[in-house]
Batch of 3 targets.
Target 1
Amino acid sequence: MWDLFVAIVLGIVEGLTEFAPVSSTGHMILVDDMLLHSKELFPASVANSFKVVIQLGSILAVLVVFKDRFIDLLGLRRRSGAAASTSKGGRLKLAQVIVGLIPAGIAGVLFEDFIDEYLFSVETVLIGLVLGGILMIVADKFGPRSPSADTVDKISYKQAFGIGLFQCLGMWPGFSRSGSTISGGVLLGMSHRAAADFTFIMAVPIMAGATLISLYKHWADFTPEALPFFIAGFISAFVFALLSIRFFLKLIQKIKLTPFAIYRFVLAALIAVFLYI
């Protein structure tokens, strides 16, 4: 039963932290590598595949929360002539999402091997936690008080591309994809809520693509013995991601980013204490 408990706890950690600007990688290191030690239950490849599977639970949660938005983006909703005309002029377009995905897509192709080989260490995660926190404080301090885009439907192609550039920072472990993109969106003239909405929408194709590729590479790890471990983690990640996304979207407009930045500094200090003292 211990393996199922570990799976559920890690799924909870993934669900609560994947889309909040606090670094799910940092939390996985603190909870798993230092406390639960999932790699002692299964081979390292299985433990790594598990972390990919629970990301699918988080992706499914985003699809549920933003289901109407994705239906509109994909053109699957039938509209009357007047409604369709209004929609074309005043709603987020799929092309804007694609523009936002381009920078990280190119950077991922160019630097994936370098990141996997040199940046996945506790030291780089600590650096990412601190630098990402500083960026979030800068966004709160210097972001415009009257955003040009107070909803995701008002963002421009220039803002979408700019957020895509900031998203590249999230490739550094510990920096946080959502932290970098929300901060970037605020600095580019978006409200905190609009930047968060666009961040979650962009996360789905990026995370889904990376997850499916990883699943294909590690399909042999899905043995009958490991399957309950995967299923328990997937379900807990989905449930808690669903709760945390809804809660975070209400919270971000009220408290902004600075409290999350302070939390990141505390988390970095805890990891450093566990490792070096």
Target 2
Amino acid sequence: MVSLSTENLQIGYGDKTIVENLNLQINKGEITTIIGANGCGKSTILKTLARVHSAKSGIVYLDGKMIHKVPTKEIAKKMAVLPQSPEAPNGLTVYELVSFGRSPHQSGFGRLTDNDRKVIDWALEVTGLTSFSAQPVDALSGGQRQRAWIAMAIAQETDLLLLDEPTTYLDMAHQLEILQLLEKLNREQSRTIVMVIHDLNHASRFSHHMVALRSGTIVKEGTADEVMTPDVLKTVFQIDAEIVKDPRTKKPVCLCYDLIEKEQSLDKRRDMNF
């Protein structure tokens, strides 16, 4: 099973440092979610883990090897990546897109084998896209396109899946379907999954391990019970959250919340009126 970790990672763009001294261990065979406010470095960390973005300093280890020294094809056999808002060439069909997931396993002229076709058909089926396989990706709805990209990622058959906001554009039912699919892949095939996700309740429900970030720094990591607390959410999101237990899953749920800054400004205005 593939392992992934970082050592004193510093990440940024140009002169701007976004993440500094990041030491992160992705647990094998678990679902890890990264949560945090917009701009805190979640997607940048995921890109760096996937070697899409280069770190300023520090090391990403894949199976104990420095990832920048691992051949690209070897990485692609171990790690599938779904970026945020990917785009496909005009006219590319759903089947063709999903077939790209088989590229790391092909040799020679890159022709699809019977096994490749079997895996592609399976990926289309579990994402509910079998009937759309001949349609152009750019003719699909936003939610259907997102499912097509997820189908491509799982067709790659890697032990490790990195997904940046995989439920984007999906309605509530399809969000749940995709997350349950990822949960099934984790449970039945022991795939290690790392997700950036905005919905805290989904993160809590489907994670073994959560990592909460603020300004590129880990505020708290651990189980949902350890991370989904009023104090952690106050630090990470500047909100006053009410946390309860989900009666079905027994996981913590953010029932409601208020903005702390708003509350403080209201208190100031009240004081000025006296």
Target 3
Amino acid sequence: MKTYLVTGAAGFIGSNYVKYMLKKYHGQAQVVILDALTYAGNLLSIKDEIALPNVVFVKGDIGDYEAVSKIFKDHDIDYVVNFAAESHVDRSITNPRLFLETNILGTQNMLQCAREAWYRGKDAQGKNIYKENTRFLQISTDEVYGSLAKDYDEPQPLHVSQELKKVIGNRHDLKTYGKQFFTEETPLSPRSPYSAAKTSADLIVKAYHDTYGLPVNITRCSNNYGPYHFPEKLIPLIIKNILEGKKLPVYGKGLNVRDWLYVEDHCKAIDLVLHNGRDGEIYNIGGFNEESNINIVKKVIAIIARIMREEPQYQRLLKCPLETIDESLIEYVADRPGHDMRYAMDPTKIATQLGWYPETTFAIGIEKTVRWNLDNQDWVKSVTSGDYQSYYEQMYGNRQKI
């Protein structure tokens, strides 16, 4: 039975990954969760998981050398999946130092602790030997590449290579707003304190592989969406504001384009890279779902309005008249500094090497995401009100292993 150390697992992608992994391996994995429970970490997202006998929760910081070293010693860790990061661009503009401390120094501390715990000596050539079948997986972002040109005002059909068609089949839902895409060879060009900190962390991970031979992989994903998403990000914020009858803030004219990846598809990719990725390799994980921010907002408005009309039991969630749910809620606000125009990932490498591709189309994924938010308003309210902190205090006091 393998033991996984998953950092930041009370956050959005981390919580979804833990759920996916525990379901897939049916108790055949030990999981240690390390999370500092900052504003975006919520134990309610993983309350069922931390009640399992094969899951241990540790409240702590990835930058705390003593705490992390103790975890490696006490639990004989095989795999590290490092989600823990400060990740909101707007917050990084306001407080860049926090992002540097967590994303750079925290990652270096995790790498050092893994290196010390897994080290087994040197071979005849003087190369470091580590515990067999171990891996440090750094979860990164497409934002390390900077920005791509937006060549088309309206999306055009995306034509993929024959090599890629062998994996994904003949899909007719693929579209693009540009001619270029991020590959693993694209030069790094971060444009915000957040993306600069993630870029630095990636380089440190690579340095630990090149210098010390530590077994690592890096994955860079496009924008995730789905359940348990903290409601400061675009899609959950729009859903929340619509239900409350509030204005929907959109930067600039809303023409910035992102590649959207359903979070469960991302979790499947992480699992594949962790177990089958080539040592030291970087893998781009994209959703094949390019969409402009303004179109995202309009789609969410339309979905919620339709659900409210067709399934009136949901109208109890509204704090405004149903007839006011329309595009008049959109409010254009001043663009943020260094706002990247377009992100678009080329996932050919992970598709052809590991057989992964994004299974969830945006039409299906966005409907599932809206419905999850409607059906889990207690979770949303706990996050926005801070009530989940009382849940932590209760759990921390009553469960020895937390």
